[in-house]
Amino acid sequence: MQPQHRVSGGEHLRSERQTVMGWLAAILHERFSETLLLNPSEPGWVTLSIPGNLQTIQIQSSFEIFDQASSDLPCTQWCAARENWLAVLGGDIPAPGAACLPYPLIEQTTQGYIIHYDILGLAYWMMSRKEEVGRTDLDEHARFPAVVSHAYKHQYLERPVVDEWFHVLGQVMRRLWPTLTLVDHHFATRVSHDVDGPSWYTFSSFPQLLRTVGADLLIRHKPLRALKAPVIWSQARKTLHALDPANTFSWLMDISERYELKSAFYFICGRTDACRDAQYEPEHPAIRTLMREIHARGHEIGLHPSYNAFQQPEVIVKEAQRLARICDEEGIERGAWGGRMHFLRWETPTTLYGWELAGAAYDSSLGYADRPGFRCGTCFEYPAFDPARYMPVNVRIRPLIAMEVTILGQRHLGLGTGEAAYTKFMHLKNVCRAVDGNFTLLWHNSELETSECKALYESLLA
Ligand SMILES: [Zn+2]
Prior knowledge:
It is a single chain. This protein is α/β, with parallel strands linked by helices. It is built from 14 helices and 16 strands. The protein has helices at residues 9-31, 63-66, 119-127, 150-153, 161-176, 206-218, 223-235, 249-258, 285-296, 313-329, 350-358, 404-408, 419-434, 451-461, and strands at residues 37-40, 45-49, 56-60, 75-78, 93-96, 106-109, 112-115, 188-195, 263-267, 300-303, 338-339, 362-363, 382-386, 391-397, 402-403, 438-442. The strands form four sheets. Strands 1-2-3-7-6 form a five-stranded mixed β-sheet. Strand 2 (45-49) and strand 3 form a beta hairpin. The termini are far apart. Residues 1-7 have low confidence and may be disordered. It binds zinc ion (ZN). Zinc ion (ZN) binds next to loops. The site of zinc ion (ZN) has 5 residues, from loops.
């Protein structure tokens, strides 16, 4: 009998670490250069090198620290200027996972540079969302909320901390390998719109219509809108009604075209919660007309998986197939497509597999509903990774930086539609610009009812 090959705990850890290293190498290739080589050297260190050059960058790396599904890691700060390096956002750079740092943090030796902070471990922990795996301290929608996150507790949620450290790493590469050409990145704004309610009234049953009109009058104090309701409800059949306050699609496309942007519209194609999912069916003639218009104008159509889909990959697949069928029937050809989870509900890693199985190119859910900022520590798109099974997942993460209701709405920051909200959005946008990343903004079509709202939205893209 052949003796069975037994895998020791140490070997498991080694193979998991190796998969993580492979994924991190892919991220470094996208960010810096395809030619970079990443190798675990002696225990506790990884080495960055380039072919044909003996000079290396050694990074002190303790996988165990950043392989924790916990928000209780220590945190300190590093003063880049004290060592003659540039902090791209100014000030001290947060250093999650470390209680204190040695001086100097970045040492020059005859072999190259040594960095005594685990920049790559941090990237793994933030970008894989390891912090969230199996957590039970969730909000009423079973979401991991910003307020319990390490980033919020240590006040760096509004900083793309991985991008800041990558900026430092890029400086080290430039000094060590001045002839190495690094990838050029350019700032871009990405706008997307979750189509939760394409109409205030069209898709309502008569009792639902009465309830909405009642709420318009008594709760929202909008008598004019209530007056339009019966007209919109009875007339809109093949297209959304021009008077409908939620029908801002043409306006959104006009604005995007004015600033040479592409809007992405994500449609709900299923119902897994009677109250929280959409009233419309995506096969409705008015929705089909809308999709044709979006496509004809060169904007994007994607999926907004229903409320309970986040824990059921097969439901995301079914809803994606339904959207694909409608697009086929309407002659809408889509290349790579993606979307965002309804209510930003997300479970790491379950939700990732839904997108992967559905054949999506990207997901753009990973921002927090309760606070804006950098949930993944970055504003760059990147390939996904499952930190529970230690496997790359074939979908890309397009981190969400801000959703309008998070900043405007009373339930969260409550900044309204004036100067304070504008300042907050622009701060986030400028941070993304400083690191040459992407400012990904979610603005619902149904949240543009007032001229103040519209003016604010347009000012953010101008
Ligand atoms: Zn939604």
